[in-house]
Amino acid sequence: MGTDKNIVVTRTLEKDLSEKQTFGSNKKETKNWLIDIKNRKNQPVNLIVEDQVPVSQNSSIDVEVQETGGVKPDALTGRIVWNFLLNSQDEKKVQLKYLVKYPKNQSVIVE
Q1: Closest Cα partner for 110 from 52, 70, 49, 50?
Q2: What would the CATH number be for the domain defined by 7-103?
Q3: According to the model, what pLDDT value does residue 22 have?
Q4: Do 96 and 51 touch, CB atoms closer than 8 A?
Q5: Which pLDDT score, from 0 to 100, does residue 18 have?
Q6: What gap in Å lies between CA 96 and CA 62, rounded to an integer?
Q7: b/e string for 16-28 if b means 16 or more Cβ within 10 A?
Q8: 90 burial class (0-12, 13-18, 19+ CB within 10 angstroms)?
């Protein structure tokens, strides 16, 4: 097996749609990822693309999933799996967007 150079996947943070805000005693961080998949083969391929949204183990930290391209994340792991057929020389874009809200006195890394 190994990697296939004719299937190209990029994951880019959309800076203009991602933001960090402070409201009262809370901070809110929104992350908006664009996943771009290209099939450079001369035949269609069945693809499975996986990603993950944050899952909070702390009751003072809330995660709100806003966009997943129609796929529901696993509640325990945050894992998201997209299955689709990508035609020859075709391209598909999937948006993944989530908001993390936490107390401003806490240090939280949101990726």
Answers
A1: 52
A2: 2.60.40
A3: 84
A4: yes
A5: 66
A6: 17
A7: eeeeeeeeeebbb
A8: middle
Q: Is the four-CA dihedral 78, 37, 91, 14 of positive or negative sign?
A: positive
| Residue pointed to by tokens 């693309």 | 49
- Pair of tokens at residue 40: 């450079």
Q: Tokens 């391929």 label which residue?
A: 45
Q: pLDDT for 45-99, tens place per residue?
A: 999 999 999 999 999 999 999 999 999 999 999 999 999 999 999 999 999 999 9
**Residue 58, CA atoms < 13 Å, CB-side half-sphere:** 10
pLDDT at residue 3 in the model? 81
Pairing verdict, β 62-67 and 91-103: antiparallel
How far is the C-alpha of 81 from the C-alpha of 41, rounded, in Å? 22
What is the domain partition of the chain in residue ranges? 7-103
Long-range contacts of range 69-76, CB-CB < 8 Å, 24 or more positions apart? 69/94, 69/95, 69/96
